[in-house]
Specification:
single chain; about 300 residues; 4-stranded antiparallel β-sheet; two-stranded antiparallel sheet; elongated
């Protein structure tokens, strides 16, 4: 085969000649491209572990705390720390987002659902019917740890698996996703998270309402001003409304718009994109090898 002169009259590499040389290898490069696409598909689909994403769309629950009871009620409420009109600038969706990522919240989940720690940390893959555990970390048959991770390590894995998106311009909906090797566990823990984030807020507000009612009951006997008495009575009604709403609804902070379903298809890796990326990298590398090899040969001829 006739060699191509890669160099111009001044001895520099001619880019046009390089492109023409690559064009002469088009059949070989086309075959390599198909082979690399097949290889990329094989690697991304069979050699990399799949992850599944459970998702839930939540809507913030509007506060039902009633009116503030006028100026006097507002002043008394501020004195004893009552929330009469919600937190200015922060809605329930934002509170839920920050709570879900908090270490204390994760600790609460582990304390109430200790069985999720092995599933969160030690499951390494899912074969379509059962969860496969990493035997170097956890023995699922005897339910014993080989190497138990620290709380900080477990929280880090939990935190990285969470994805949250708050749509400010579409009604204030909060989308929460959890990524994991097991689709069953992803759906399970997401349900636990939504249940517990509502309980955390409800428990705090009920505790504050109880303390506030105790204070108001103790103080009501010493108040002689009629306006202050009326304001105190309205404050007590507001705290009773908080307790009533906490008892009648399981969704105190955020409410899911739909049930949580176990995902059937994996969310990662993205097989088409990853296959193309692997093929492209290998294809470009092959072009560099082919051109580089022939360029070195041509340079050696010129030097001799």
């Amino acid at each position: 085969m006739n060699s191509i002169n890669f160099f111009d009259e001044e001895g520099d590499v001619n880019p046009i000649a390089v492109v023409r040389h690559i064009w002469t290898k088009k059949i070989l490069l086309l075959i390599l491209a198909f082979l690399y696409l097949f290889f990329g598909y094989f690697v991304s689909n069979f050699m990399l572990e799949k992850k599944y994403t459970a998702e839930s769309i939540l809507t913030p629950v509007e506060a039902k705390q009633g009116s503030s009871g006028g100026l006097a009620g507002s002043q008394i409420g501020n004195m004893i720390g009552l929330s009469l009109g919600g937190v200015v600038g922060v809605n329930n969706a934002q509170i839920a987002m920050e709570t879900l990522r908090a270490k204390d919240f994760f600790k609460r989940i582990l304390d109430k659902h200790a069985e999720i720690l092995p599933e969160l940390v030690a499951i390494s893959s899912y074969d379509g019917s059962k969860e496969i555990f990493n035997e170097d970390l956890y023995d699922n048959e005897s339910k014993t740890w080989i190497y138990k991770p620290s709380f900080q390590r477990a929280w880090s894995i939990y935190n990285k698996a969470i994805e949250m998106e708050y749509s400010w311009d579409r009604g204030g909906f909060l989308t929460v996703r959890f990524n994991h090797f097991s689709p069953k566990f992803a759906a399970k823990i997401l349900g636990i998270m939504i249940e517990e984030v509502n309980l955390v807020k409800r428990d705090r507000d009920v505790e504050l309402a109880n303390r506030s009612l105790d204070y108001l009951l103790r103080s009501s006997g010493t108040i002689t001003n009629s306006e202050l008495k009326r304001a105190t009575s309205e404050l007590m009604q507001n705290q009773l409304k908080i307790k009533m709403f906490a008892d009648i609804s399981p969704y105190y902070l955020v409410e899911p718009l739909d049930s949580i379903y176990v995902p059937e298809s994996s969310s990662s890796p993205n097989v088409p994109v990853l296959s193309f990326a692997i093929a492209l990298v290998l294809w470009v590398f092959s072009i560099c090898i082919i051109v580089g090899r022939d360029l070195v040969r041509e340079f050696a001829k010129r030097a001799s």
